[in-house]
Design a protein that fits this description.
The complex is a heterotrimer of chains A (about 280), B (about 775) and C (about 160). With about 280 residues, chain A is an alpha+beta fold. Chain A has twelve helices and 13 strands. The radius of gyration of chain C is 16 Å and the shape is globular. In chain C, helix 2 packs across helix 5 (about 150-160). In chain C, strands 3-2-6-4-5 form a five-stranded mixed beta sheet, covered by helices on one side. The chains are: A alpha+beta (about 280), B alpha+beta (about 775), C alpha+beta (about 160).
């Protein structure tokens, strides 16, 4: 951390290397130093912290470890499903979730789901540490709130309570090794009577940052989940969604599809919550 | 003649000859080769779609330490490349006509220095007005890409269609049968639609690669990745002014060539640099150069009108299509001719007019790519047939069966078909597809936002270059070696498709030995007879016939020599288990093993146990009206696609692809299945995923992260169905399959999408966005 | 954590390569792909995508895991058990996967084959009886332009069935 304190603005941090190495080979790394953090220690797998009711994913935890973690399978099956579909096995074997978040590429699934999960990122410097919410972490394409002397140490995800369900939906041009054209994630809380008491709904991959769908959340909270129609959700999404140009498809398509994905993520989250409430 | 009681070698699922080297990592591609003292080549490419080169100064590049040679057009004699029209310079002279056009090249001690040297070359450009679509290119006042097109040499077969008037229209091909306007005027039903297809990259996993060296004798050796070594040879020699005997080409393993590796660029540049530097020079294209620096499948716009009787007989087809061939007509106009020949499909239509235009633009240039223009026109025709079938309430297969070619049918080029001369298995491919999938299996179904549907499409292709050149030739040599094995010298190439394995089986079958007794020699233009190479689905048919002739001739000679030795008539001898013996079991002691016979031939008789065979498909050029017999061996394909569409997102999942192909005789079913399956997946990519999008001639996303091809998770169930009809002129009745698999696939998928959703998308690729837009339009109605 | 003072510095890295311990000097910015293909001349480690992790031809096994050598620094091979396809056969005896690829026609031009075999081996070592869907998913980082993947999946299925349990 002392090195970063001194040379951080001239350094790139290397964990898995999935983003750094190709940039290096293309001569696109503008900074002089590469800080290889593989030796920092910490768990190589996601860790359940029962007291704090959170799941912790350290900086060196690879996608594959998340995909195969029993702890994630039990508590965050939506994250497991996302990881199963992410990139390729080769990339999952070496790339890290933390690295994905720091690369902040727009066409990516994890930032959106982590925002919906209300995850927070612990960032450390030589001086101390601070927390940034996953929803606020990304500022733009390739840009995050990480300061030059900071390193992302871990991602903490609050354990969903027993009446909470998570859903994630994506669209891509092909089944395998494909970045999303758009994605959506929802965390839905249901009361005993089956009404939605809380909702976190995000759209991802449409622009560089996950976009929160507060209007959709407002439509859902306080009502029975099957009360509204997906058409209403889709309209709400299309009203608020930011339009970003994309070489692969038009902003209009992304906006249309984002609405559909939000409906599906919400429906999946509600179904998941109902299953959890109903019990084994 | 052969294989009396022994089981035939034909029809065996023999693994490909390169299998063990491939699975052990011992295969070797040009990309893997290196020589001591080798230099690395890099090319400076045009950043402009159309510009004059005002100043070109390579001084600083030449002066850079570690640079051994720098070449520009001044180092090349004034000569041009091109299959259809010879007007492409190896290195740009005064004008660049597309982005990526090579201007200069360097050879340096390592890749970093070579890249640096490229950066030191100074070029001043004067941008010129450019055109990026066929309509703009043919509008009045459009800037001329070749102001003086009459000065260039052209392929004679295309001459009658050359458009001499100044303009970007290069050739216009017409195929006319009967009177289509009258037919359409009287038809009970007329259907009309427009279609468009996109530029696509071959994505050969092994990029273009070449290594050139001057031997001590002064001869040049060139190793390169290509399926057409003789074609590369003649282009390099004529371009660089080298006598053809001064160049030898060797081809190691090839990591794919779907057509694009038949047009020289890197190969000649590397040879030129080697001459200048007097050291070996190697060049390998980056993946980006594989998008920008080599040709793409031609983008086509098609207008078609179909006239049908109320009982489903096709009365007339009127089709016009315009091919964007880019600035240089390598294969562009040839592709246009071939597409026109195949445009009417395997249907007997009395009145046809097909007009094809090859048009220059400043987009990335067009190239020969598996299918050679046929997939594009078939996409249009089969879509239109589907529209007709739906309107008439006929099953799509039934409409095709009713009009499909049979004995006595006449093609759009007025060629009369007879089963005596041609294997006509089209109807049988429909039948076999129907056996596997009865109409009851074609049900639509809906589950939430998912819609399932089934679509059909058919096509016809041909083996060989028939109507485009005078003679499509192959030769072969078979030699009996001292250990009793047979060495086969053939210029036929394996670029993955496995034809050479089948050729080995042909030799083995003809002589009467096991395939393991037949060794294929390495690919060396010094040693093997001329062969047109892996192209036009020609090798199994044409090279196969040459190989068969050589094998028969050698067998005959072997039996004659053995007859003398054993004092038994040659007619009473057989070859079995590596031994020549009497057919009569009672005389079984009268035999000689092949190794002994080989020894005897050379050392006692004083003759070479070697035979030569040649075969050529004589060109049947079309007349001005497009009449003629352009195809001898017809390749029929009937395909069925099953898809599931998510109507809320526009995404398409292909569930299954079935393809019934008439291959004449299945020499190696494993290889044939591989060809069909591979081309189905390429067809799926063509239909749904792939496009080299260009903005003002500049490709968007020329990398494999943005240009998406099908991966294993995308693969549907693949059902290849081999139909054998016996092709009279083919070796053991075999013909080709390599391209036919790709011809109808996009249409089958588009038709399946229509069946599932009621929406027809007539522009490829059918991306989720395009489909969703069409679905929304339909909902709005 | 190790901070490299300068891009372009050299280091020594020691690992096991195809069963043999090796120790070699590398440039700290060198990729694993570059080290294996150019320094060790293992031409079975291939590239088709200009090193952006989109083709799988560079796949190697690192501690038994399918890994993208073009996206890894050579220095990160330190202490690992690295395998290329060259380690698959035992002398002239082919691995069941290799035999199955040959018999089932799971290769055409052969360019993707080495990477494909390693990804398949990693799968079978992890999941001895995979479904076709699992096979397809495991190989989806390996681009093949020739076969349409069907015979590759057949071959992996066959090898799984015929492997000793």
């Amino acid at each position: 951390m002392d090195f970063l304190a001194e040379r951080g603005s001239d350094s790139s941090i290397l964990a898995g290397g999935m983003s750094i190495v190709p940039a290096l080979k293309r001569g696109l790394l503008t900074r002089r130093f590469i800080v290889n953090i593989k030796g920092i220690g910490g768990s190589s797998a996601p860790v359940l912290d029962a007291t704090n009711a959170q799941l912790t994913i350290g900086a060196l935890v690879r996608h594959r470890e998340i995909e195969t973690s029993p702890v994630i399978a039990e508590h965050l099956p939506a994250l497991r499903a996302l990881e199963e579909r992410l990139a390729s096995i080769q990339i999952r074997n070496h790339g890290t979730l933390a690295g994905n978040l720091c690369a902040a590429e727009s066409w990516s699934d994890p930032p959106c789901l982590l925002a919906a999960l209300d995850a927070s990122l612990l960032v450390v410097t030589a001086r101390g540490e601070r927390r940034v919410s996953a929803a606020d972490w990304i500022l733009g394409e390739g840009e995050t709130r990480r300061q030059p002397d900071e390193m992302l140490l871990r991602i903490d995800i609050p354990l969903p309570a027993a009446n909470v369900g998570i859903g994630h939906a994506r669209v891509a041009a092909r089944q395998g090794l494909a970045r999303p054209l758009a994605c959506a994630a929802a965390r839905m809380t249901l009361s005993e009577s089956g009404r939605v008491t809380a909702a976190r709904v995000f759209v991802g991959a449409v622009g560089p940052r996950p976009q929160r769908m507060t209007e959709v959340e407002a439509m859902l909270v306080g009502h029975r989940p099957d009360g509204g129609s997906s058409a209403d959700i889709e309209q709400a999404v299309s009203r608020v969604i930011e339009h970003h140009p994309d070489e692969r498809c038009s902003a209009r398509y992304k906006a249309q599809v984002a609405g559909v994905l939000v409906s599906r993520a919400v429906a999946d989250a509600v179904a998941h919550a109902k299953r959890r409430i109903a019990g084994p | 003649m052969s294989g009396e009681e022994r089981p035939s070698v034909l029809g065996r699922h023999l693994p490909k000859l390169n299998s063990v080297p491939a699975v052990t990592g011992r295969n070797e591609y040009t990309v893997d080769l290196s020589l001591p003292g080798m230099l690395y080549a890099r090319i400076l490419r045009s950043p402009h779609a159309h510009a004059r080169i005002v100043r070109l100064d390579v001084g600083r590049a030449r002066a850079l330490p570690g640079v051994a040679a720098v070449v520009t057009s001044e180092d090349v004699r004034p000569s041009y490349l091109g299959g259809s029209v010879r007007h492409r310079p190896l290195l740009a002279t005064k004008v660049v006509r597309c982005i990526g056009e090579p201007i200069a090249a360097v050879a340096a001690v390592d890749e970093t220095t070579a890249a640096k040297a490229i950066g030191l070359i100074e070029v001043d450009y004067e941008p010129l007005p450019a055109v990026f679509d066929v309509n703009a290119a043919t509008a009045p006042g459009a800037p001329l890409i070749h102001p003086d097109k009459s000065v260039y040499a052209r392929l004679p077969a295309l001459d009658q269609w050359f458009v001499p008037e100044p303009g970007n229209l290069s050739h216009r091909i017409r195929i006319v049968r009967g009177d289509v306007e009258a037919a359409l005027a009287h038809a009970a039903k007329v259907y009309k639609s427009s279609f468009a297809t996109q530029a696509v990259s071959q994505v050969c996993p092994e990029a273009h690669a070449a290594l050139a060296k001057i031997e001590p004798s002064g001869r040049l050796v060139l190793w390169c990745s290509t399926g057409k070594p003789f074609r590369i040879h003649s282009q390099v020699c004529s371009l660089l002014g080298i006598d053809s005997s001064r160049l030898r080409i060797e081809v190691p393993d090839v990591g794919c060539d779907f057509g694009v590796k038949g047009e020289v660029s890197l190969e000649a540049i590397v040879t030129l640099l080697a001459q200048k530097a007097r050291r070996p020079v190697k060049g390998v294209f980056s993946r980006e150069e594989e998008f920008i620096g080599v040709g793409l499948r031609i983008a086509t716009e098609i207008d078609a009108t179909l006239g049908v009787s109320s009982d489903g007989r096709i009365l007339g087809l009127d089709m016009t299509f315009r091919n964007d061939i880019g600035p240089y007509d390598g294969y562009g106009s040839m592709i246009t001719v071939w597409a026109a020949v195949c445009a009417a499909g395997p249907y007997d239509i009395a009145d046809v007019r097909v007009v094809g235009e090859s048009i220059h633009t400043n987009n990335l240039r067009g190239a020969s790519f598996r299918g050679f223009g046929n997939p594009q026109v078939s996409f249009a025709r089969e879509g239109l047939l589907d529209i007709a079938a739906k309107d008439l309430g006929m099953h799509p297969v039934e409409l095709r069966r009713r009009n499909g070619w049979k004995d006595g049918s006449v093609t759009a080029t007025s060629q009369k078909l007879s089963t005596e001369r041609h294997g006509l298995g089209f109807i049988e491919t429909l039948d076999r597809l129907g056996d596997r999938f009865p109409p009851t299996a074609d049900q639509r179904s809906d589950t939430g936002p998912l819609r399932r549907g089934v679509g059909y499409a058919c096509g016809v292709h041909g083996s060989g270059y028939g109507c485009l050149i005078d003679a499509d030739t192959a030769g072969a040599i078979v030699k009996l070696t001292p250990d009793g094995t047979f060495l086969l010298f053939s210029g036929a190439m394996d670029v993955g498709q496995g034809t050479t394995t089948s050729l080995v089986q042909i030799v083995a079958e003809a002589i009467g030995v096991e395939p393991a007794q037949v060794i294929l020699s390495s690919q060396d233009t010094d040693a093997v007879p001329f062969d047109g190479g892996a192209s036009a689905s020609r090798q199994l048919y044409i090279s196969g016939n040459a190989v068969l002739r050589a094998a028969h001739a050698l067998r005959k000679r072997i039996l004659e020599m053995a007859a003398d030795l054993l004092e038994i008539g040659a007619d009473n001898l057989i070859i079995r288990d590596g031994v020549v013996r009497a057919a009569d079991p009672a005389l079984s002691n009268r035999s000689i093993a092949l190794p002994q016979l080989a020894f005897h031939a050379i050392n006692v008789r004083g003759e070479q146990p070697i035979a030569f065979g040649t075969y050529s498909l004589q060109g049947a050029l079309l007349n001005r009206e497009g009449k003629g017999n352009p195809i001898e061996a017809f390749l029929f394909a009937s395909q069925r696609a099953e898809v599931e569409v998510d109507i809320e997102t526009g995404t398409v999942r292909v569930l299954s692809l079935a393809a019934a192909h008439d291959v004449g005789r299945a020499i190696n079913p494993l290889v044939i299945e591989g060809q069909i399956e591979g081309s189905l997946i390429q067809g799926m990519g063509y239909a749904l995923l792939e496009e080299v999008r260009q903005r003002e001639g500049r490709p968007i996303g020329p990398d494999l992260g943005q240009y998406l091809v099908p991966m294993s998770a995308d693969t549907p169930e693949l059902i290849p169905i081999i139909v054998e009809t016996h092709e009279p002129s083919g070796p053991f009745g075999a013909k080709g399959v390599g391209e036919a698999g790709l011809v109808p696939t996009a249409a089958a998928i588009a038709n399946a999408i229509e069946s599932a959703t009621g929406v027809r998308v007539t522009r490829l690729p059918i991306t989720p966005e395009r489909l969703l837009e069409a679905l929304k339009k339909q909902q709005a109605r | 954590m190790t901070a490299s003072p300068e891009i372009g510095a050299t280091r020594e890295v020691a690992f096991s390569l195809n069963g043999t311990d090796v120790r070699v000097a590398i440039d700290v910015t060198q990729t694993a792909f570059d080290l294996l293909r150019h320094d060790f001349r293992l031409t079975s480690v291939r590239s088709a995508c200009d090193g952006i992790g989109m083709c799988g031809a560079c796949t190697i096994l690192v501690d038994g895991r399918a890994s993208p050598s073009c996206l890894m620094l050579a220095i990160d091979l330190a202490g690992a058990r690295v395998e290329t396809v060259d380690a698959l056969a035992e002398g002239e005896r082919l691995h069941p996967l290799q035999q199955a690829f040959v018999a089932k026609g799971a290769l055409q031009c052969g360019y993707c084959t080495a990477g494909m075999l390693l990804a398949a081996k990693a799968l079978l070592d992890d999941t001895p009886r995979p479904t076709r869907e699992q096979i397809a998913r495991a190989l989806t980082g390996n681009l093949c332009r020739c076969t349409g993947y069907a015979k590759i999946i057949d071959a992996v299925e066959t090898a799984a069935r015929e492997a000793k349990s």
